[in-house]
Amino acid sequence: MKYLVLILFITNLCWSKDYTYSDLEGTALKANPLIIQKTLELKELKSQINKIQSDYYPEVKVIVGQENRIAPDETEIEKNKNVAELRVNYNLYQFGASKKQLKALEENKKVLIKNIDFTKKQIKRDLKRLFFSTLSLKKELKLINEEILYNKTLKKQVSNKKKQGLVGAADTLEIDMREATLKNRQIKITEEYQHGLDLIRKITLIPHEQVISLQGDIPHSHFEINLKELHLAAKSKNIELAKVNSDINSLSYQADASFSKRLPSLKLMGRYGNMRIDETYTSQDTQEGLVGLYLEIPLFDGGRKSSEQAIQESRLERSKQKLRKTKHDIEIDLAHKFEKFQNIHTLLDLSEKNLENAKRYFKNVLSEYKRGVKNSLDLVSARDRLYQFHIDVIKYKKEYQLTKLDLERISGLNL
Description:
9 helices; two-stranded parallel ribbon; alpha+beta
């Protein structure tokens, strides 16, 4: 049994792996289903473009076969005939309907290429968001474990004071309640941490049974960026704005194409060979041909084409309204995230300063407690403040990274 446990332990260690963000990024981008889906969408769109481009070429086909004309009451007209015919249909002109359809698809193609690049960047941002969020939980969990261990030291000190008759039962209860609170928090953060690791496994396609550990820090640096720069970048790089602008251009071409289809079209049709019995032009069993130039003028289709045009125009107007709303939303979101980003710098700087002060404060309180100047409540309060300022630094570093990622997503910049 001992050997089995040892084997399982060694296997688990071998299967466990440390990951930095760079390691996870490479894993997430490799054969990512979302990127593959977008690439396949582009491939499909290119095929649609090829399909429309085929309208510029004549349709050529060959008809071969054998016919038997049977007339029991008029046997003299019964006939067997081999059919071999070449046919050509060529749409010469339709007021640019195909050209406008192509332009609409080309607009879609441009934004889809942008979307593939955006998808790659967004996968990185989503992964980075998960990485820093989960790493912050790991750091908090480490801090809690350290506090639980240190709480035992505090408990010994209070116990010694109690033996000397310097403190009462309330002081011991204070330390016990602190330990219970920390363990309660430990259970909650452990669950959140494991859930965060599962979310990372999902985006990177790492198997659930593989034990992973995050390595790294949550960096924070001051750099200059202003709201005007972010707005200018968003106008050309925001993917939602690019999609709506592309939709407007595409729908405008589609509406024009729908109108063109209601206009006359000029077609060239030709055929040559041994035609079918019911399509021959002469009484002789010889090869014959036909070439014709035709102007087709739509007169009535029950409103089908006009309805199609109305649909495209309605979609175009909806997209214009969506553009207006998207621009407004981007402006509001950027202003909010930028203000939050600036505030986080200040909050983090203050928290780091408070942390240094709290370390010195606790050291002084501990010294005074040992001399009998401070009581157990003062000691626990000072330690809790030190612990909380540690948590604040971790939290604001995480918020700094997440807000920076939000600004990157909206503006399209790499900050």
